[in-house]
Fold this sequence. Notes:
By secondary structure, this protein is α+β, with helices and mostly antiparallel strands. The protein folds into two domains: 30-222, DNA ligase/mRNA capping enzyme (D-amino Acid Aminotransferase, Chain A, domain 1, 2-Layer Sandwich); 226-338, CATH 2.40.50.140. The chain has helices at residues 86-93, 125-130, 155-165, 182-194, 270-281, and strands spanning 35-38, 49-54, 58-65, 68-73, 99-110, 133-145, 148-149, 173-174, 199-204, 214-222, 226-234, 248-253, 259-265, 284-285, 301-312, 326-330. The strands form three sheets. Strands 3, 4, 5, 6, 7 and 8 form a six-stranded mixed beta sheet that branches. The radius of gyration is 22 Å and the shape is globular. The two termini are 35 Å apart.
Amino acid sequence: MPSYKPRQTSSYGGRKKKAPPPAPAIYHQKIAPMGVQDGVRADIKAPTKRQQRKFDGTRSFVIKDFNDVQIMGSRKWVNDYGKNHPELVEAVRKLPVDRAIWDAEFTFFKKGTDRDFFLNALATPETIKKNDVEAKLVIFDVLYVDSDDLQQVPFDDRMDILQEIIPKDTEYLIRPKTVKGVKEKEKQAQELEKRKLEGVVEKEAESPYRQGEETPEWLKVKNWKSDEAIVVGYTQGNNSRASTFGSMILAQRDKQGKLHYVGRTAGLKNKDLAIMLKKMQALKTTKTSLVEVPEDVKALSWVKPELVVEVKFLNRTPNGVLRMPDFLRERPDKPTSQVTLPN
Length: 343
């Protein structure tokens, strides 16, 4: 049994107003998120793992220091999304803790629904309105409360503490349901698959929070095969695409960091074609960054390997090339160093 005992909600709040004591150093430091490995459907049957729905947003840390609230993008630690969303900041301020750090997903939802819709977390008000979405915070883990470091506390107990702080969903805050039991997990996974939502994350009940690590303790099980890839060039477009491009040439890194060809992706809508072409043209270069260029790959232009996209695909060929990859979205939150070939 863990030695840490969750306190009652009432002990977190209701304190007399006074000058707050100095915050522990962690409240002013960059935090590295715990990573998630790719899993398979059979992983849902692991009885020691708990299940949460996977949301399609931007990984963020929510930091509350009394009335000071930040919603920091976890990749570069420079963007505070709360500056553009005071409604989220105010919702966090109302939580019954003086200080806390949560792991969360900054997510847009179609208004009036629980259907997530991916937009860049820095989307303009005009873009948000055009897509008829609203921003919410999906808070799925807690690392600190006041001066208590919870990272070594088992996942199940962290969820008990999180439930004390956020007993139910609010207008702007969501605490995803944590499902136990193989039958219950399978039921939720089937429901999400039927609704064509992204999938689930399976988390070991006893797992601590491992900053900056990616272990089998946390596994994402998606309802379709998808992966990130680095754009290294683009091909000539034909007919209606003669003025833009045909497909993007994709690569992934090996263990030494070298780039290997993994396919070409189409499936871009007209608005995506224009946006991606502009970004690729800004990165044009005369040399390929690939270790080897297949004979059938004819690039109109090579680009510096700085853009990351997510694609869905049928499967991989024996030499690792994606079969029938289709563009899903750009992934500005994903460092190119983390876009690697499967083991």
